[in-house]
Design brief:
It contains eleven helices and ten strands. This is Succinoglycan biosynthesis protein ExoU.
C-alpha cells in the first residue's frame, strides 16, 4: 500500500538532508516526500533536490521566513495528499522496511528509535541492534504522560516517538501542530490526539535513527519555549480524560512548570541580580521549593564528570 507522505522540516540541514530524503524515498509505502526548507541560510534546498530519485514523489519548498518546526510541518502537511503522514527530522534517517512493520489501521503507529552520535551515523548498520519482542503495545493518555516524566536525572522520552499519523483523524478533529511551540510540539500533538480518542500502537523494533546533536532545538530550553509547553500542558487538562490520566498529566505539568520557574529565576538573576531573583522565588512562596530543587540539581550535575558518549542507545529497552 503506497499511502504515506514523509514530511521533513529542515533548517540549515545541508549536510544531512540528502540522506534523510533518500531513506524515505527508498520505502515502497511512500507516495510522497515533502521537504519544507524553513528559511535556511545554507544550501539545504539544493541538497534536498539533489537527492531526488526521479520518481516524481519529491516536493521541496523553501520558506521566505523562519517560522519554526511546527509551522514548517503544517506547511508540509498542507502540501501533501497521502492518507498517512510520517515525520522525519532533517538530521535523521529511516531504516529499510520501517513502514511495512507499522499497522496502517491505527491513528498513531510508532516504533522504537535508536539514537546515534554524528560520528556513528555514517557507519551505522542495523545488524548491531538487539532482537526486539513482537507484539503491539497500546498507549493511552495516561501511559503517554507517564512516559514523559523525568525519573531522577533521566527524562521520559515518549515524546520523541515519530509515529505515522492518520490524516483522516487529524482532519476529523481539525488538528495541526501548534505553531507557537518550538519545544515539545510532537508531545503536544500526540497528547491531543490521544485525548480525542486516537488509537496509538507501539512496537519495540527499531525503524528510525535519530542523530543526537548538542545544538538541536530539542536540546535547548529557552524561556519562551518552556512557557509555550506549559501552556499546552494546561490546555490538555481542559479536554475530557479519566481520573488516572488527569493525575498523570498534572504530574507532567508540575515538572514542566518547575523547569519554567527555574529558567525564569535564572533570567532574573542575569538581568537584575540575585536580590531580584530571590524576590521572584519567594513571591509567592510556593515557587521557592521547585526553584531550589532545580538549582541544587544543576549544581550536582555540574560536579559529576561527564559520561562518555555512547555510539548508540535505544529509546525503549528491548
Amino acid at each position: 500500500m503506497t499511502d504515506i507522505c514523509v514530511i521533513i522540516a529542515a533548517h540549515n540541514a545541508q549536510a544531512t538532508i540528502a540522506k534523510a530524503v533518500r531513506s524515505a524515498l527508498a520505502e515502497a509505502e511512500v507516495a510522497e516526500v515533502v521537504v519544507v526548507d524553513d528559511a535556511s541560510t545554507d544550501a539545504t534546498t539544493e541538497a534536498a533536490r539533489g537527492a531526488d530519485d526521479g520518481s516524481g514523489r519529491l516536493i521541496v519548498e523553501r520558506q521566505a521566513q523562519n517560522g519554526g518546526p511546527s509551522a514548517a510541518r503544517n506547511r508540509a502537511i498542507a502540501l501533501s495528499r497521502a492518507a498517512r503522514i510520517a515525520i522525519l527530522d532533517a538530521d535523521d534517517f529511516l531504516l529499510p522496511g520501517r513502514f511495512a512493520r507499522l499497522d496502517p489501521t491505527l491513528d498513531l503507529a510508532a516504533d522504537n528509535i535508536v539514537f546515534v552520535t554524528p560520528d556513528h551515523a555514517a557507519d551505522f548498520v542495523p545488524s548491531s541492534l538487539p532482537d526486539a519482542p513482537t507484539g503491539v503495545e497500546m498507549l493511552d493518555a495516561e501511559a503517554f504522560a507517564l512516559g514523559n516524566l523525568a525519573q531522577g536525572v533521566r527524562r521520559g522520552e515518549l515524546g520523541f516517538l515519530k509515529p505515522v499519523m492518520s490524516r483522516a483523524f487529524l482532519a476529523r478533529h481539525g488538528l495541526r501542530y501548534d505553531e507557537r511551540m518550538w519545544l515539545g510540539e510532537d508531545f503536544d500533538l500526540y497528547m491531543r490526539m490521544l485525548l480525542l480518542g486516537a488509537r496509538f500502537g507501539l512496537i519495540r523494533s527499531v525503524g528510525y535513527v535519530a542523530v543526537e546533536r548538542g545544538a538541536s532545538l530539542s536540546g535547548r530550553h529557552r524561556t519562551a519555549d518552556l512557557a509555550a509547553l506549559e501552556s499546552a500542558c494546561r490546555a490538555h487538562l481542559d479536554l475530557p480524560a479519566s481520573p488516572s490520566a488527569r493525575a498523570a498529566m498534572r504530574r507532567h505539568l508540575q515538572q514542566v512548570r518547575a523547569k519554567l520557574l527555574l529558567r525564569q529565576f535564572l533570567d532574573r538573576k542575569a538581568e537584575a541580580g540575585i536580590a531580584a531573583a530571590l524576590g521572584f522565588a519567594l513571591s509567592p512562596p510556593a515557587r521557592f521549593l521547585p526553584i531550589a530543587r532545580g538549582v541544587a540539581r544543576d549544581k550536582l550535575a555540574a560536579l559529576r564528570p561527564p559520561a562518555p558518549p555512547r555510539p548508540e542507545r535505544l529509546l525503549l529497552p528491548v
